[in-house]
Structures are given as structure tokens and as C-alpha cells.
């Protein structure tokens, strides 16, 4: 469909919108840099370097493995959500793994990366895995509800094991005993959001309601554009309703995503033990769940850079770890170096995938 010039926003409006988006992104980068600098400037960096050097190189290499395990679990969860045999055999696991690594790299490396990665996921699902657009949209929404559900269960496990540690850290961090109860409220909020999203999605009516709202937009050409895509909205609802009946696949995906969260907690425990920090799994889970929520809240900051790092150091100090600032700085440097490796691999797959993967059957 050809649009006339007056159907588009004026160039000045588009320029302002683009400039605003760029400004927000650079603001996120600036906040990340300032928070990271504030976190590290009080640390004994030579001491942190010595602490890192005390760990053997083979053990440092092993630090890459937990993230790989987490991404394998995440990939299998996605494959179970998006694969539907009605469209033929599912794409190979390797393609889904490449998609996961690529989108995770974007999530961690750019401001508001989580929002960008969802759009990229839609494109790569179609391009690399042959998943039709309506099915991809329904699957992305379903996976989001499962992530929220798995996160809520993860919060419950962390509270069951580490409630006392959160109480102990609450005073030094907040000056009040509210921290564990704030985590309880966050977990309940995640659970409510997961159930509400799943209930609406699997009812098979969400896309139709969106379509009805879009039809009311002013402008003949806009309405014609929406009307021409009525079949896509209906197909999305059909896929969502059908996906809601695949309870076994959804339950397995939720368990795999819970496993992903737990492995990421175990990774933190492994890195701290590697740096000779004597902490328990319960202690690690107690602050990992809080920092995961903080990282999600600071979505404009790439990978929660600086914000999450300051949180690690604050929690280590609140839990009584000796030389917490220096130990925390060493931990942060190792953790971020590990992330750089996976970001580089993911971006390599993302930009090289066009040459490596032929489009899946049926992909435009």
C-alpha cells in the first residue's frame, strides 16, 4: 500500500522522536558508566586484581560453563513453546540456540536491550526457524508469561532459603526490616502478572480486541491498512488458544526457565567461591533474586551495568563479607569479563547468521 506524504508524521516530528530515543539510550549508557565508576572508585583495584590472579586459569575458564547451561535450558524452553508440528518438523536445536545467544547478547549490550531483543526474536524466529508471524507473536507473549511465572517461583525458593539473610541485610541496606517483605510483594506481583498475561493470552481474544481498537483509529488509509491484516490478528488468537492447550509443553518450558534462574544463582556462588569468599547458596540466592529484580527495573541500563554491580558490593558488605568493596570489585570484573565473552559470541552469531543459516522453509 502506498502512503501519501500527509499520512506520515512530518519530518520534524520524526526527527524529534529519533533524537529523543537516542537521548534516552545515551542517558542509559551515562547512568551505567557513572554507577560503575562510583562502584569501583572506592575499591582496592590492585587488591582485586591480586584476588583474581590467585584463581587458576582452568577454574576461570570453567566460569563460562554455567552461563552456557543456562542458555541451553532457555533454548530448550523456547523450542518447546515455539515448535508446533502442524507446520512440519521443528527447526534444529542449533538454530534456536543461536537465536537465544544472539538475542541475549543484544539484551546485555545495548540500552533497553530487552525490548529490542523481542523484536529481533520475532524476525529470527521466522528467518532462522521458520515460525510463522502469528505463531511467533503468540509464542513470544506465552514465553514472557512463563518467564514471569518462573521468576515468581525463583523468588519463593530464595525467600524460603534466605529469608533470614534478607532480614540480616535489610538493616544495613535500608535502615529498616522491610527488605524481605518487599521481595515477598515483588514475588506476588510477578505471579499475578504471569497469571493475568497467561489468562488473557490463552483465552484467544487478545489480538481480536487489539484489532477492534485499531479499527477505530482516525484516517481512512490507516484503517484500510489494519483491515488488510485482519487474518493475521485472527491467526494470532488461534495460535494463542492452541498453545494454551499444550499444557505439558508449557509446564516443561516453565521448569526449564526456573532451572535457568537457579543456574544463574549457582554461577554467582561459583564465582564468589573462586575468589575465596565463604558464602552459602542461601545467602547467594537471597541477594541474587533482589538484584535480578533491580536489573529488570533498570532496563534502560545495558545489563544493569553499574546498578547491579553496586548492589553486589552493598549486599556483600551487609552480609559481613570482609573487604566487601575489594572482593565485590573482583567479582564484578570477573562477571563482566565473562559476559563480554558471551556477548561477543552472540553478536558474532547474530551478524554472521545470514551467511551461516539459510532461511528456514517458508521464511521470507
The portion of residues assigned to helices is over 70%
Number of β-strand runs: 0
The domain count comes to 1
Strand content range: under 5%
Whole-number radius of gyration?
Answer: 23 Å
Overall average residue pLDDT: 86
Could you say which structural class the secondary elements and strand pairing correspond to?
Answer: mainly alpha
Distance between the termini: 18 Å
Count of DSSP H/I helices? 15
SSE arrangement, N to C: HHHHHHHHHHHHHHH
Please give the largest β-sheet: none
- Uncertain stretches of 5 or more adjacent residues: 1-15
What is the 3D shape? globular
Write up this protein.
The chain has 364 residues and is mainly α. The protein has one domain (41-81, 88-356). The chain has 15 helices and no strands. Helix 5 (93-109) packs antiparallel against helix 6 and helix 9 (206-214) runs antiparallel to helix 11 (230-244). The protein is globular.
What would the keywords be for this entry?
mainly alpha; disordered N terminus; 364 residues
Concise synopsis of the structure shown:
By secondary structure, this protein is mostly helical. It has helices at residues 11-40, 45-53, 57-62, 65-82, 93-109, 113-129, 133-174, 179-202, 206-214, 220-227, 230-244, 247-274, 281-297, 307-318, 324-356.
Amino acid at each position: 500500500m502506498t502512503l501519501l506524504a500527509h499520512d506520515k508524521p512530518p519530518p520534524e516530528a520524526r526527527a524529534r522522536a529519533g533524537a529523543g530515543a537516542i537521548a534516552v539510550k545515551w542517558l542509559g549508557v551515562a547512568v551505567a558508566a557513572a554507577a560503575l565508576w562510583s562502584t569501583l572508585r572506592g575499591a582496592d583495584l590492585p587488591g582485586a586484581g591480586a584476588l583474581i590472579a590467585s584463581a587458576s586459569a582452568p577454574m576461570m575458564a570453567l566460569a563460562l560453563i554455567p552461563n552456557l547451561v543456562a542458555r541451553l535450558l532457555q533454548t530448550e524452553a523456547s523450542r518447546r513453546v515455539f515448535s508446533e508440528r502442524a507446520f512440519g518438523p521443528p527447526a534444529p536445536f542449533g538454530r534456536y540456540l543461536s537465536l537465544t545467544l544472539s538475542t541475549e547478547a543484544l539484551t546485555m549490550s545495548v540500552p533497553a536491550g530487552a525490548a529490542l531483543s523481542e523484536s529481533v526474536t520475532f524476525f529470527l524466529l521466522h528467518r532462522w526457524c521458520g515460525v510463522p508471524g502469528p505463531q511467533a507473536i503468540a509464542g513470544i507473549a506465552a514465553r514472557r508469561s512463563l518467564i514471569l511465572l518462573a521468576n515468581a517461583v525463583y523468588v519463593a525458593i530464595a525467600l524460603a532459603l534466605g529469608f533470614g539473610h534478607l532480614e540480616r541485610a535489610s538493616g544495613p541496606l535500608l535502615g529498616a526490616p522491610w527488605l524481605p517483605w518487599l521481595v515477598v510483594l515483588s514475588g506476588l506481583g510477578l505471579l499475578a502478572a504471569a497469571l493475568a498475561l497467561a489468562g488473557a493470552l490463552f483465552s484467544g481474544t487478545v489480538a481480536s480486541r487489539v484489532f477492534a481498537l485499531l479499527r477505530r483509529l482516525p484516517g481512512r488509509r490507516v484503517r484500510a491498512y489494519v483491515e488488510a491484516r485482519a487474518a493475521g490478528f485472527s491467526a494470532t488468537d488461534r495460535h494463542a488458544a492452541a498453545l494454551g492447550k499444550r499444557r505439558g509443553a508449557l509446564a516443561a518450558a516453565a521448569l526449564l526457565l526456573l532451572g535457568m534462574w537457579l543456574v544463574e544463582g549457582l554461577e554467582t556462588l561459583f564465582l564468589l567461591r573462586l575468589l575465596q569468599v565463604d558464602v552459602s547458596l542461601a545467602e547467594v540466592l537471597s541477594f541474587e533474586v533482589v538484584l535480578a529484580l533491580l536489573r529488570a527495573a533498570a532496563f534502560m541500563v545495558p545489563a544493569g551495568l553499574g546498578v547491579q554491580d553496586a548492589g553486589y558490593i552493598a549486599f556483600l558488605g551487609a552480609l559481613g563479607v570482609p573487604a566487601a568493596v575489594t572482593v565485590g570489585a573482583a567479582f564484578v570484573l570477573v562477571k563482566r569479563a565473562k559476559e563480554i565473552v558471551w556477548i561477543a559470541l552472540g553478536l558474532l552469531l547474530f551478524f554472521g547468521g545470514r551467511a551461516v543459516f539459510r532461511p528456514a522453509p517458508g521464511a521470507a
